[in-house]
Write a structure and sequence with these properties.
alpha+beta, seven-stranded mixed beta sheet, five-stranded mixed beta sheet, binds glycyl-adenosine-5'-phosphate
Length: 482
């Protein structure tokens, strides 16, 4: 990450705190690493993104239904899913600094340095070698690669490394009051398993026919060793996942379908296509036969925001085996029973919030009429997911203007999230709304009393126009349509 990129991220973090989007968890106790809380505007933004995803998955697809499964699951779930045996990262410790690193992150960081020094070929070769070794779980080879490239610890500056070890990312806790191994349960590291174990319940109760999907949003937990980049990599985070159950043999076409469909969802937020790219997985997760990331160009470079995975029948077959319960589907068209294959779409809600904050944040230089310059910090959040849609601002606190404004507030609040404020100059109030990303403000002035018109001010262009009070709701609603 270059200085400017880091500055940009630091500005976004500071802005997110100052304007009530995101706070460090338990900040008064100096925080908890890689755990964050959402403030008044952050929680609205998060909810709006979640709702938009939920609507586009369920309401817009006749063959996708939602569920809300528990975070705790019977621990055999995690044996069957392969998470107990396989959900781990290769880690290495520096003996001098006592710092622990994910091996791929350490090597990638070094490759970024090579890129910055214009050693492009060397960086490419290094990453290629790393990917090949990761694919084979060749930890001795990876250690040799680190040594051969003289990769040092960013803290101690030494290459005094331990051997590479696997580290399981699941958090465990005890169920009930007796602390023994039999009572050990896990905080789910993905929401997907709650969908798999409910596959037949949902299929039967909602009378679903293949192909069909089950969607879910909810918290997931991972004991990330290197938690970095604000809400990009957290230990407690939220996922929005959908498992699409299909006939075996049709996985390639459905994989392509969901790749396209999901990218389209991102673009429907009004974000430029050049900010996105696909990245095929080289090292596949233990359950996948194909996988691709949708990456976004964050201030620290292109990074994964969503994964599309072809999970075969891995999960259902294993749950069938471990539970001794039949998880087959009878396909009336083929007149046979089979275990469906699955295409999964899995997106991080917190990463989507960071994506929207990164996309939206701008420090705009404004040229004034007298040629002097001013700056404003504005969040160009897509209007339909903005925390507040409309700010209602009487020009003064007197002369009957607040009464008109309150009436407008009471009408509009039924339709979308509004904000009422009468303190400070109108310029200051506009700036505060720009900073939280409110796309529209209306101002009620003395003329409003005469002509029943108000001034509508647009966040992005700062243009203003007079509109009738009676048509405010309709005009704003038109802008909020996706
Ligand atoms: N069920 C499949 C699955 O969990 P994943 O690629 O490990 O796949 C899916 O995670 C998405 O969850 C990622 O694309 C990312 O957006 C989000 N995610 C994963 N780990 C995260 C973390 N530590 N913090 C925030 N988001 C995370």
């Amino acid at each position: 990450m270059s200085m400017t990129d880091d500055n940009q991220l630091q500005k976004i973090i500071a802005h997110a705190k100052e304007y009530g989007f995101i706070f460090q968890s338990s900040e008064i106790y100096d925080g908890l690493s890689a755990v964050y809380d959402y403030g008044p505007y952050g929680s609205e933004l998060k909810k709006n993104i979640r709702d938009y995803w939920w609507k586009s998955m369920t309401q817009m697809h006749n063959n996708i239904v939602g569920i809300d499964a528990a975070i705790f699951m019977q621990p055999t779930t995690w044996k069957a899913s392969g998470h107990l045996a396989n959900f781990s990262d290769p880690l290495i410790d520096n003996k001098d600094s006592k710092k622990r690193y994910r091996v791929d992150h350490l090597i990638e960081q070094f490759a970024e340095k090579l890129e910055k020094n214009n050693e492009h070929e060397e960086a490419r070769t290094l990453l290629h070698e790393m990917e090949e070794l990761l694919k084979q779980d060749d930890f001795d080879g990876l250690k040799t690669l680190i040594e051969k490239n003289k990769i040092t610890c960013p803290i101690s500056g030494t290459a005094n490394w331990t051997p590479i070890r696997q580290f399981n990312l699941m958090f465990s806790t005890q169920l009930g009051s007796v602390s023994d191994e039999a009572n050990e349960i896990y905080l789910r590291p993905e929401t997907a398993q709650g969908i798999f174990v409910n596959f037949l319940n949902v299929q039967k109760s909602a009378r679903m026919k293949i192909p069909f999907g089950i969607a879910q949003t909810g918290k997931a937990f991972r004991n990330e060793i290197v938690a970095r980049q604000f809400i990009f990599r957290m230990r407690e985070f939220e996922q929005m996942e959908m498992q699409f159950f299909i006939q075996p043999g049709t996985q390639k076409e459905w994989y392509e379908y969901w790749k396209k469909e999901r990218l389209q969802w991102h673009l429907s937020l009004g974000i430029e296509a050049t900010k996105y790219r696909f990245h095929d997985h080289v090292k596949l997760a233990h359950y996948a036969d194909a996988a691709v990331d949708i990456e976004y160009d964050f201030p620290f470079g292109f990074k994964e925001v969503e994964g599309i995975h072809s999970r075969t029948d891995f999960d259902l077959s294993n749950h069938q085996k471990f539970s001794n319960k039949k998880l087959t589907y009878f396909d009336p068209e083929l007149n046979k029973h089979y275990i469906p294959y699955v295409i999964e779409t899995s997106i991080g809600l917190d990463r989507m919030c960071l994506l929207i904050l990164s996309h939206s944040y701008e420090e705009e230089i404004l040229k004034k009429e007298d040629d002097s310059v001013d700056t404003r910090t504005v969040m160009h959040i897509p209007p339909f997911i903005a925390p507040i849609k409309l700010a209602i601002l009487p020009l003064t606190k007197k002369d009957g203007l607040p009464e008109i404004a309150r009436d407008i507030f009471d009408t509009c609040k039924q339709e979308f999230r509004c904000f009422y404020e009468e303190k400070d100059t109108i310029g200051k109030r506009y700036r505060r709304q720009d900073a939280i990303g409110t796309p529209f403000c209306i101002t009620i002035d003395h003329q409003s009393k005469e002509d029943q018109m108000v001034t509508l001010r647009y966040r992005d262009s700062m243009k203003q126009e007079r509109i009738p009070i009676s048509s405010i709701t309709q005009i704003i609603q038109n802008y909020l349509r996706v």
